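hey so i finally got around to running both of the ones u sent me last week. sorry it took forever, my laptop kept dying halfway thru and i had to restart like 3 times lol. anyway pasting them below in the order u listed, first the sequence line then the structure token line for each. didnt double check formatting much so if smth looks off just lmk and ill redo it

first one:
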Amino acid sequence: MKGYVKALILTIVCLAILIPFASEFPDGLEKVMETFQLEEQESSWSGLMPEYTMPLIENPYLSTLLAGLVGIFLVLGAVFMLGVVMQSRKDENL
């Protein structure tokens, strides 16, 4: 097995274990909104994984874990596809 595949698998396993322990405190933008006492407007769409959870799964740990894993694979897939497109364009220019 190639080194980058091992590193990828190790990263996914570590993230899968650590994601559910993410901080409950607000991030930077949420903190600024709290400081200036601004209220977030209700959006027309809540997204695929609102608040980094899977709405159909009731167990909060499992819901957050699966949302993190789905997010990892979505990003990896997008980066892979971008790489394929960029490589094919590079090959066309040669």
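and the second one:
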Amino acid sequence: MTPLTEKIALRTMRYFTQEDPTQIAHTQCVVNYTQLIAEGENYSPRKKELIEIAAWLHDIGCPSARTKYGNSRPIHQMTEGFNITSEWLKEYSELTPEEQEWIAHVVGGHHQLKQALHYHFEPLYEADIIVNFFEDYYKKQNLQLYYDKVMKTTRGRELYKMFFHVK
């Protein structure tokens, strides 16, 4: 973990400790799978750092969405996540404005395959799907469908197949 990633990870965990501590374990799992998938996709060190930062922040909008809308449905958490991420990242001079914008768009679209393909954050998108299946957020009857339609990376497909025994 780079010093920048560590700062953002600690800030995220402090935020969730105050707002919703249950998010911490989910976030850590998504970060770990994101790293593993990104490594398998041969991302550059900087791209791996940026996608890891996005993974730490991917659900940062959930507490705010529940407060504002009464739920953390994907559209609400992504909207709030985009706004929070955009504000937070202004404080980190280690990130260029373009990198800040990219991370905010990743957080603001992390449940959308079209966004994952457009902004090239497939490892985070796939990691979140894997963890969400483990946590029963998605219905198990859809395991094969997700494998066939949305798992795009070689490493993500390999992990998914191993975990969920799809064909």
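quick thing i noticed on the 2nd:
Residues 41 and 155 are 7 Å apart (CA to CA).
anyway thats it, ttyl
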